[in-house]
Automatic annotation (TrEMBL):
This is Nbr1 FW domain-containing protein. Pfam families: N_BRCA1_IG (PF16158). One of its GO terms (molecular function) is metallopeptidase activity. It comes from Candidatus Amesbacteria bacterium RIFOXYD1_FULL_47_9. InterPro entries: Ig-like_fold, MetalloPept_cat_dom_sf, Nbr1_FW. Residues 337-423 form the Nbr1 FW domain.
Length: 426
């Protein structure tokens, strides 16, 4: 369907949707106030070097632009008479497997866990009045397509390896023909295409043809990514990707590419060159945000999207890594044995961790001369925080636990990190 046709969509259908939306009332308390954005540096540190970030920018954006122009010719199906949106609108990931491609056991768990992390990430920029805002997500569906990959790559039985024509159009149309509700109101699909290389594109409806910066909210959308994203989250950086953009092919940056394409499906375009935004520096994920300024209010666009709902700010954490000795020598009366431990949690909840309110606390055993360490900067959902501090060995030999958990004030939450440490004679 052409852009012209998209704009001239059946008025009755769209009018009805608008009516339903207004009758149901706007369920979201949309603030017109600009959010207070994190200060420079407060977002944490990206793992992508400046040089690779420049490469990612130069490689990604011209191609994405071209892909999105071709995706604008996509068939947006006319919903059948009496069509009702699903009562719970969700983002649906699909793993698209051409007849000559193979699913790895890592693929499905990687897609599901990435989508869960991206859900949490979105709740960070969208947090308001002690509520986290994010989308619901379905488990990944696997579609075993009947034709070899080349059929979808260029729409013919055979094509040259570097000949890419409308991969996303062909994939979407194949899914629609197979009965998937791609681009029906109430569904957003993010499609992972095995064989799709560095492909990245996205489209939304109804207002994406007239995308300003940022665009209006969407009622349906589709995003397509290839092996570079899929490999990074499942088996490791894709070699072809590494040649083009180095460290931007790692897990976090590529999760950022997946989250960026999802941002387009919610109605966002690019972020007026603001490097703090996911819609610009996706390679800095999870240490990026959405912009909430009057002229560039990404937060408002996404928070008012009908796929986004509120949830209570419950907190959770995952252990990312820890570094503690297995054996230390005991302290002597005149010579305390001090040593460092470090461990990293991620914020796997729905709102940010704030300094002084959030801390890590010793669960077991209270023999180390320290029981508590505060979070010193805001930690937004999906971001990591590393604790590093000194313990003092006890004066009696034995086996003691050094087990730590996150707390909000005095309430424990999330995963436990640590181990039993053997305390020996010097
Ligand atoms: Zn983009």
């Amino acid at each position: 369907m052409s852009i012209k046709k998209l704009i001239l969509l059946p008025v009755s259908f769209f009018g009805l949707l608008l009516l339903v939306f207004f009758l149901s009332g706007n369920p979201f308390n949309i603030s017109t106030q600009a959010q207070s954005l994190p200060a420079q540096g407060e977002l944490g540190t990206s793992e992508v070097s400046e040089q690779d970030a420049q490469k990612a920018q130069d490689y990604f954006y011209p191609r994405e632009q071209k892909n999105m122009e071709s995706l604008s010719r996509i068939s947006v199906p006319t919903p059948p008479p009496g069509y009702k949106q699903p009562s719970i609108r969700k983002v649906h990931p699909i793993l698209f497997v051409a007849q000559d491609k193979t699913v790895l056991p890592e693929h499905q768990p990687a897609i599901n866990s990435t989508m869960q992390l991206i859900r949490r990430w979105y709740s960070g920029p969208l947090e308001q009045n002690n509520l986290g805002y994010t989308f619901e997500v379905a488990n990944v569906a696997v579609y075993n397509a009947p034709f070899p990959f080349s059929h979808y790559q260029c729409g013919r039985a055979w094509c040259a390896p570097d000949e890419w024509i409308d991969l996303d159009l062909n994939v979407v149309h194949a899914l629609q023909d197979a009965g998937y509700p791609v681009l029906l109101p109430g569904f957003i699909h993010e499609i992972f295409v095995i064989g799709g290389g560095g492909w990245a594109s996205a489209w939304c409806y109804p207002d994406c043809p007239v995308w300003p910066d940022p665009g209006p909210s969407s009622e349906t959308g589709v995003a397509v990514v290839g092996d570079w994203a899929l490999d990074a989250i499942s088996t490791g950086p894709n070699p072809d990707c590494v040649v083009q953009m180095g460290s931007a092919c790692n897990k976090y940056p590529q999760q950022g590419a997946i989250a960026h394409e999802l941002g387009h499906t919610f109605g966002l375009y690019h972020a007026n060159d603001d490097p703090r935004s996911l819609m610009r520096n996706w390679w800095d994920f999870p240490y990026v945000t959405l912009i909430g300024e009057p002229k560039n209010d990404e937060i408002r666009v996404v928070r008012s999207n009908q796929f986004i709902g509120s949830r209570v700010c419950t907190h959770d954490s995952q252990v990312i890594r820890s570094n503690m000795p297995s054996t230390v020598t005991k302290s002597l009366p005149d010579a305390p044995n001090k040593f460092f431990i470090s461990f990293t949690f991620n914020n796997y909840g729905w709102c940010r961790w704030t300094p002084t309110t959030f801390n890590t606390f010793l669960v077991k055993d209270n023999v180390w001369g320290k029981r508590r360490a505060n979070v010193l900067s805001n930690v937004y959902p999906a971001q990591e925080y590393r604790f590093r501090f000194q313990l003092t060995a006890p004066t009696t030999v034995g086996r003691y636990y050094s087990l730590w958990k996150m707390r909000k004030s005095t309430t424990f939450f999330g995963a436990q990190v640590g181990k039993q440490i053997r305390v020996t004679n010097p």
